[in-house]
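Note to self: keep these together.
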Amino acid sequence: MKRKADTSFYRKFLTIYVALVLQNVVTLSVNLADNMMLGSYSETALSGVAAVNQIQFISQQLLMALGDGLVIFCSQYWGKRQTEPMKKISATAMHAGLLIAILLFALVSIFPRQAVGIFTTEESIIREGVSYLSIIRFTYLFFAVTQILLATLRSVEVVKIAFYLSVMTFFVNCGINYVLIYGHFGAPEMGAAGAAIGTLAARMTELVVLIIYIIKKEKQLHLSIRSYLQHDRVLSGDYFRVTAPMLVVQGLWGVNTALQTVILGHMTAAAIAANSFASTIFMMVKSMAVGAASTASIIIGNTIGTGDIALVKKYSGRLQRIFVVIGLVSGLLLFLIRVPILQLYDLSASTKEMANTFLIILSVVVIGMSYQMPTNNGIIRGGGNAMFVVKMDLISIWGIVIPLSFVMAFVVKASPAVVVCCLNADQIFKCIPAFLESHYGNWIRKLTRE
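Structure:
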């Protein structure tokens, strides 16, 4: 019986994990393909789009927080097989997601030049960015609805549809981009605006297919438009008590990412190019840790919902051993692929050497990240103690990492390699509080109501 239960656990973990990792990799591949196409078309167009994407990144972090908060609650209710509260929480998350999307749409519609101008002063780049923004802003609503619906499905362990959607998005987006960026097959040559049309078409198609899937195939929750017209004040209060601090931290994380770009951007040109290259490869490998965090959140939440606390602790220990293995595999993978991938790029010798150094550093960083991120965001936060992770992130990022990196870059004038170490130091030292809290802390919180 024990062996059967163990097999069931690992099968459940792998089923969810593989789908989420593949979805993340394909999604990143869409961004990579966009950058490659725009980069070969025009560096100015690429820079304009990159500036707009910085704005979107912050809103995406907020939507991610709403989705993660939804999964934390709904996974516990799903463990109890109570679906009505899940629908009400999903409705609350949807209303908040739409509000964020509408506010962002309004701001960039009223102040397009100012929005792009935050990240660059070059008129040609601002012009390309505004052209891209005038179309891409219409994707915000579609993206918000899709993300909340997918988070709702994720809480009932329906994850494969997200992967299938990401594959479809990849082909729709890349196909339209190829035609409209360059003006192939008699189409107009639109550059950055063509890339925006490709993304808009992909987002619209993605949402339509997802809604059709929910209507035709989704059997657990029986979601409908009526599900999203309701409001429960008590459950909304429960949801925002946990999710509001996560929104603050995720929003600050978006700002933190932009600041990291600023810090390295004020160093050498080789540092900017090397960091851009290394970050792209790192993000792909990091998908293994991100998938592990999402999977752990679902499994831990479901198990807490059943009321079997001893099993929750057992699963926590088992998951952490898996995270260590994922970290070692990720670190080795990144270390081994760095040289072959570097050979594919036409970079100067100094940039290649610096990118190689960055990737060696990140090969170590990803080991720590693969343990602390799933333990903190998957087990501890997924177990209901979101405030522990919020406090730790605020202290580590804003109290240590950003100040230390600024001092090393602008006061000490340290090398780019040292600055990259400082920018990623939290991925290593957060392993200690993650281990202590998960083994000795009071992180298991029952969030459901009877």
